[in-house]
Structure formats: C-alpha cells, structure tokens
User: Fold this.
Amino acid sequence: MGVRVKILVVEDETAIRNNIMSLLRMEGFAVVEAANGRQGLALAREHLPGLILSDVMMPELDGYGMLELLRADPLTASIPLIFLSARTERADRRKGMNLGADDYLGKPFTHDELLEAVTARIKRTQPAAAAKATLPGTDAAMGMQTGTKHKPPVVVKGYRILRKIGSGGMSEVFLAVRESDQRELALKVLDTAINDDGALLDRFLQEYALLAQIDHPNVARIFDQGITDAHAFLSMEYFVRGDIKQRIAAGLTQHEALGVTVQVGLALAQIHARGIVHRDVKPDNLMMRRDGTVALIDFGIAKHADHGLGHTLHGEIVGSPFYLSPEQAAGRPVSAASDIYCLGVIFHEMLTGQRPYTADRMEVLLAQHLFSPPPQLPAQHSDMQDLLNRMMHKDPALRMGTAQAVVKYITERWPLASSARI
Assistant:
C-alpha cells in the first residue's frame, strides 16, 4: 500500500479498540478511532476512510444506527463497513447486511481472520474504483475534472521505471533503470503530495542518512536520494531473489541458519558501532543476493543514539509484533541488545520453521515476548539451545551483549558457518 489505506475503528471497549488499532498499524494502515457511533459518523464524514470496522452495541448511537445514517449520506454512502460483534445470530447478521454492511465478523475473532476480512474488502473496493475511473466515456477517462483525486504515474528524473515490485505503509518500491549507466536499481518513492505527514518524510529521509554511513557487504547499498515537487525518493541495491521468507518456509539446514545469523550479526555490528539500533530486524528485511549472501535493509524506523533511544510514546509499539524485543513490547528504551533478541527470534524460525511465539491477540503476543522463556529446540538442534537462550534472554543486560559476540560464539563452535550461503 504505497498510499496508506485509512481505516476507521468504531468500538466502545477501549482494550478491544486499542488491540485492533495496534494490529492495523503494524500492517501499515492509517487508523482513526471512535468510541461510539456518533463519533464514528462525524469522523467518517471528516476523514472519508477507505474502510470502517464497527462494533454493533455501543452507547449514544449503535452500529446499526450509524450505518443507516452513513448510507443515507451521499458523501459516505459508498464507504465499505465490516461489523465486528459478539451478536452472531442469523437475525443480527441479516439486519446488518440489509442495512448495507459489507461483511460481519463474529467476536472473538483471530488476528488472521481480521486481516483476511480487511484485505479482502480493500481488494474488492480498490479495483472496482480503478475500473470505474478508467471506463471509456467516463469523466476520468476523458480527462474531465471530478471530485476524486487520481494518482499520476511516478516519474523520477534520471530513472526509467520498469514496474512496481513492492509497497509498504508509507512508500512504494519500483524496479528502475538508472539512465546514466543502465544499472537496475530499486527505487523507493514517497508521494509527498498525498503523504503530507512530516514524520513520515523525516523517517523516509532518515533511511538514506543512516545507510549512507555504512559500506558493508551485509548491509544494503544505497546510491542516491532526492526530492521533487511530488515525490521523495531514494535508489538502492536491487535484490532479484527477494527476502529470506520463502527460503525459511522451504527449510534451511543448521549450517545455513548459522550462516545467515553470522551475516546478519556482522551487519548489526556495523550499525551498532555507529550508534544505530535498527528496531525492525525480521525476515522481510533480510534480502538475498545472487551469490547467496544476505543484506539487511529498511532503516526507516532505525534510531541513532544522538537522537535518543528512550521511551516510546504512550501506547506506541515500534517494530513488528512477531519479531519484537521485550523492551520494545513494554515501550522501554532500546539498545543494540534489542536487535540481538529479534535476531534470536529469526534464528529459532530458521531452525524450526516456526516463530517462537504466536497468538491471536496482540496483548497475548506481547506478554509472551515479555515473560515466556525461549522455546526448547527439537533434539536435533539441542546443541544450539544455549545460543538461542543467550540471544533471547528477557533482560537485555543479561542478553548476549553485542552482535560481534554472537558472531564469535557461532564461528568458534561451528567454524564453517561463516562461509555458508543460501
């Protein structure tokens, strides 16, 4: 999602509302919240979100009443809405659908069920809107002004864009050719005309500033940065093999898992030596080159010691929930040890094919990171349990203290690991 889809969450139970919002933000959505139907109606008219998630039983104005008023207003009539409710009787569902609800998800629902419902609804809505906008004979197709903004094609001087290859919460990534030397690069683009949030632009520009300090084979190479009237962009190394998620799913040998851990450890040692904490070490950010080496990417939420590594804002969780250190889960100060914990989580997944902690609710997952001991590895990996325990210790002061220490531990016990490639 290059342009973040905005979702309005209408729920009177604070804990449930916060849980849903945390989950959506972790997936890159922009979120607006309301505690009842009356607030939800006003915010829907103000923000015109791409999707509304709403409880049914709420004070002041319930979900049914809010939906009826939304559908009666031409401004909000077409906004898709999913009811989230413990009232799952057929009559309740039928009433909601008759009023114009697009889906009905019964409580309790799992993490995956909610994301599937949200993703499916957005996919149905966006192509339909795009098709309508380009039908021959429509106002948009004939270039006439309409009430809807249509995103122009991305043009960055000096680059020929071939195709879109990815997107995240704040930017899109394109495969592009640099015209000066015909080299294929990844072009990461932030639309500043639509994303007018100054914090997003700061994060985007920070990535170049941090990566430009580092020249190491296990850190992604960055080449250029610029700002135009419509975009901020940076160009960086293109990884034709993508990230390591599929390789983990296909299964890695012990030797390969140790080799990846060494390479990521070397990358972290480089950035930690410069006072940088990555804060989002996960398989999605570990890219594979043709030669089998691995490189760390995505420094958008990294933090430099000069800028302070203290507490996050109340209720803010920075990082990806399955790969999150206990101190990040608690909103406490981060350090190099935080990245080492995340690498330990990945190490467990590479060895077993499973994440160490899973849960359907965000608060349960965070509690596991905070309090549950590292899982016991299968018997065939028992000689690596001590390494896992040291990397995933709950107390950062007792965790393996540096990335270089992780590399040293592995290479002293498994000397061939440093040469392993995937």
Q: What stands out?
A: DSSP finds 13 helices and 14 strands in the chain. Residues 128-150, 307-318 have pLDDT under 50 and may be disordered. The two ends are 29 Å apart (CA to CA). The CA atoms of residues 275 and 305 lie 5 Å apart.
